[in-house]
C-alpha cells in the first residue's frame, strides 16, 4: 500500500482531449487576463499544490479563512486565495457564468465557473491575515493599491499549465515530485523553504535538519513573487545550482516552487506546510520569523521571532507534516565550524554577516569571506550586484508645479553627463505627457497611469545600468511607492522632494496656471483643487527658496556620492 505522501494528489486538469474542446468553447467566453500573482495561484490550484481547494474561494470560505483559518466545511486553510478583478470587469460578470482565465500572452489556461461575487472589506482582511492594516507590509500595500476591488469565487477547470521558459528541468508539480520520491525509494523527506541564496550557514542547517529527521532533503525555493527587494529568482537558482554538488546527490533534490508569497508570518508558515504536504514532504524546516516582512510603520517587527513555529506546532497534526525547528547557525572562529547559537558555551569568537552587511559588501566590492559563503555563490551574486558605482539608478523628483523640479533635473542631467560613464535619460513630466501619455487627462486614475509609465521606463533604464532622472509632479504617495518597488528590483531609487511652498510656486508661475486653477478654469490642479501628498521619508528634501539651481543640483550629487552611486573611478 502506497504511503499517503507518495500517492497521487488530486489535480484540477481535464484530459487533453477535453481541454481541446473546452478551449474552443472558452474562446467565445468573457475572459480575464491574469496578473503574475494570480498565475502563481492558478498553477498551484490546478496542479494540486493548493489541495483541497477546487478553485478560488467562495465568499463563505473567504470569511471562514479570515476568522478561523478554516474553510466553510472545517478544513484547515490559513490564506485567502481569491480572484480579484476590477469593478468595471465585475459589472460584466454574474454568478452562474463561466469566464476564461488567460495568461499575459492571451493563452487560455482555465475556466472559472463563477459562483460568488463580492466586494471585500480589505482593512478587515489585512487585520485578520497579516495582523495589522499597515501599508509598510508589502501584502497589505498590494491589497489596497494593486489588487482589484471585487473578488470572484468558484471552481476552476484546468486546461493547461502556465508555460515557464526558465529552469524547466527544475520545476516539478506535486505529483511529479511524489513520483520522483517513489522512484528513489524515499519515505521521509524534509523541505527547506527559502527565498534567499544558499550560504554556508544554510548548508549546515539543512545537513543538521536532515540528520535530525533521518530524512532526505528537498531544497524547495520559492521562485514566484517574494518580497520587493529580494534577489531575483534567476540569480538565486544559479546560486542553488552552483552549490548543489556540495550536497550528497543520492539524498538531495532541488525543485522550484512557483508560489506568490504573502509574507504573512505565522499563517504563511502553516500555508507552506500544507503546500509541502501536497508535494509529498513529511517534514519541513520552519525558520525564526518565518516569512516575516520586516519592520512595520513604527519600526517594529510585524511578528514575534517564534510566532510562526508556535502556530505551526499547534496545527502540526492537521497539517500532516512534521516541523523541524530552524536553528540560528553562527560561525565559531576557534572551531572553524557553524554551530547553533543557543548551544555555544565558553569564551569563543562568534562571527556572522547580516543580510544588510552582505548587500553592503557586494555594493562596495568588498571581500566576502569563505567561512560565510561559497565562492561559486559570491561569483553569481557579483554578476547580478556589481559595485554601486557600476549600477543603474533612478533619481525621482516630486513637487508642486513650478517648484523647480524640471530645472534642477536638467542641471543634474548635465552634471552627470559631464562626469560620463553611464547613459543618462531625463523623463520630464511635460515631455512624457507629449510623447508617452498624450491621450491621458488629469484625473487621479490618469495621473497614476502616467506616473507608472514613467516608472516602467525608468526601471528599464535602471535595469540596463543607465541613469534615469524623473521630474513629474507625482502627487500620490501610493503611486510613488509602486514606482519605487518597480525600480528597486534593479537598482537604487532616490526620491527627491522639491519642497517649494504653494505661495512661491504661484509667484513663479509664468503660465498663469495657478490663477486659472483658483478661478476654477482648470479642474483637479495639484495644490489648489487636488491634494499633494508630501513624501514622509524621501532620500533628499530640497528647499529652493533663496537657493540657486546649481546649489540644488549639487545637493543631489552629494547625496548620490554618499550612497556610492557616483564617485572617483
Automatic annotation (TrEMBL):
It catalyses: sulfate + ATP + H(+) = adenosine 5'-phosphosulfate + diphosphate; adenosine 5'-phosphosulfate + ATP = 3'-phosphoadenylyl sulfate + ADP + H(+). Residues 171-383 form the Sulphate adenylyltransferase catalytic domain. SUPFAM superfamilies: Nucleotidylyl transferase, P-loop containing nucleoside triphosphate hydrolases, PUA domain-like. Residues 391-542 form the APS kinase domain. Residues 4-160 form the ATP-sulfurylase PUA-like domain. It is an enzyme of class 2 (transferase). Signal peptide: none annotated. Pathway: Sulfur metabolism; hydrogen sulfide biosynthesis; sulfite from sulfate: step 2/3. Keywords: ATP-binding, Kinase, Nucleotide-binding, Nucleotidyltransferase, Phosphoprotein, Transferase. Its EC number is 2.7.1.25. GO terms for molecular function: kinase activity; nucleotidyltransferase activity. It holds the Pfam family ATP-sulfurylase. ATP binds at residues 399-406. PANTHER family: SULFATE ADENYLYLTRANSFERASE. Catalyzes the synthesis of activated sulfate. Belongs to the APS kinase family. This is Adenylyl-sulfate kinase. It comes from Paracoccus aurantius.
Amino acid at each position: 500500500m502506497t504511503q499517503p505522501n507518495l500517492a497521487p494528489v488530486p489535480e484540477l486538469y481535464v484530459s487533453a482531449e477535453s481541454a481541446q474542446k473546452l478551449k474552443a468553447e472558452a474562446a467565445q467566453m468573457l475572459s480575464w487576463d491574469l496578473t503574475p500573482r494570480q498565475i502563481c495561484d492558478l498553477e498551484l490550484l490546478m496542479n494540486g499544490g493548493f489541495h483541497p481547494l477546487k478553485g478560488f474561494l467562495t465568499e463563505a470560505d473567504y470569511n471562514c479563512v479570515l476568522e478561523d483559518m478554516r474553510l466553510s466545511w472545517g478544513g484547515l486553510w490559513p490564506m485567502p486565495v481569491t480572484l480579484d478583478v476590477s469593478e468595471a470587469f465585475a459589472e460584466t460578470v454574474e454568478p452562474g457564468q463561466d469566464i476564461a482565465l488567460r495568461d499575459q500572452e492571451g493563452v487560455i489556461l482555465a475556466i472559472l465557473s463563477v459562483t460568488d461575487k463580492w466586494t471585500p472589506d480589505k482593512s478587515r482582511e489585512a487585520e485578520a491575515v497579516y495582523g495589522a492594516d499597515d501599508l509598510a507590509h508589502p501584502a497589505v500595500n498590494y491589497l489596497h493599491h494593486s489588487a482589484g476591488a471585487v473578488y470572484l469565487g468558484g471552481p476552476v477547470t484546468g486546461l493547461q499549465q502556465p508555460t515557464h521558459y526558465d529552469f524547466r528541468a527544475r520545476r516539478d508539480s506535486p505529483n511529479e515530485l511524489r513520483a520522483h520520491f517513489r522512484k528513489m525509494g524515499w519515505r521521509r523527506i524534509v523541505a527547506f523553504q527559502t527565498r534567499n541564496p544558499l550560504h554556508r550557514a544554510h548548508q549546515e542547517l539543512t545537513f543538521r535538519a536532515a540528520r535530525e529527521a533521518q530524512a532526505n532533503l528537498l531544497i524547495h525555493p520559492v521562485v514566484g513573487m517574494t518580497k520587493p527587494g529580494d534577489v531575483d529568482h534567476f540569480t538565486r537558482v544559479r546560486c542553488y545550482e552552483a552549490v548543489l554538488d556540495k550536497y550528497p546527490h543520492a539524498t538531495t533534490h532541488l525543485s522550484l516552487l512557483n508560489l506568490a508569497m504573502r509574507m504573512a508570518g505565522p499563517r504563511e508558515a502553516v500555508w507552506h506546510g500544507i503546500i509541502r504536504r501536497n508535494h509529498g514532504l513529511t517534514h519541513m524546516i520552519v525558520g525564526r520569523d518565518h516569512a516575516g516582512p520586516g519592520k512595520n510603520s513604527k519600526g517594529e517587527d510585524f511578528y514575534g521571532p517564534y510566532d510562526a513555529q508556535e502556530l505551526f506546532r499547534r496545527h502540526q497534526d492537521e497539517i500532516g507534516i512534521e516541523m523541524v525547528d530552524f536553528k540560528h547557525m553562527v560561525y565559531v572562529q576557534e572551531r572553524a565550524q557553524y554551530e547553533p547559537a543557543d548551544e555555544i558555551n565558553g569564551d569563543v569568537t562568534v562571527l556572522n554577516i547580516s543580510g544588510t552587511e552582505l548587500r553592503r559588501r557586494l555594493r562596495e566590492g568588498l571581500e566576502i569571506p569563505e567561512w560565510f559563503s561559497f565562492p561559486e555563490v559570491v561569483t553569481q551574486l557579483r554578476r547580478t550586484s556589481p559595485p554601486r558605482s557600476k549600477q543603474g539608478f533612478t533619481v525621482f523628483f516630486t513637487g508642486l508645479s513650478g517648484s523647480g523640479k524640471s530645472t534642477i533635473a536638467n542641471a543634474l542631467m548635465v552634471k552627470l553627463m559631464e562626469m560620463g560613464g553611464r547613459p543618462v535619460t531625463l523623463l520630464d513630466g511635460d515631455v512624457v505627457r507629449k510623447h508617452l501619455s498624450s491621450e491621458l487627462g488629469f484625473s487621479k486614475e490618469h495621473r497614476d497611469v502616467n506616473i507608472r509609465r514613467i516608472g516602467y521606463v525608468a526601471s528599464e533604464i535602471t535595469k540596463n545600468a543607465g541613469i534615469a532622472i524623473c521630474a513629474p509632479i507625482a502627487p500620490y504617495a501610493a503611486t510613488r511607492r509602486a514606482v519605487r518597488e518597480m525600480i528597486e528590483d534593479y537598482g537604487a531609487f532616490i526620491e527627491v522632494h522639491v519642497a517649494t511652498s504653494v505661495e512661491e510656486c504661484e509667484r513663479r508661475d509664468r503660465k498663469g496656471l495657478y490663477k486659472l486653477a483658483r478661478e476654477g478654469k482648470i479642474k483637479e490642479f495639484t495644490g489648489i483643487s487636488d491634494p499633494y501628498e508630501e513624501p514622509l521619508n524621501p532620500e533628499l528634501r530640497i528647499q529652493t527658496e533663496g537657493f540657486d539651481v546649481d546649489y540644488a543640483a549639487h545637493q543631489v550629487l552629494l547625496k548620490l556620492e554618499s550612497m556610492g552611486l557616483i564617485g572617483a573611478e
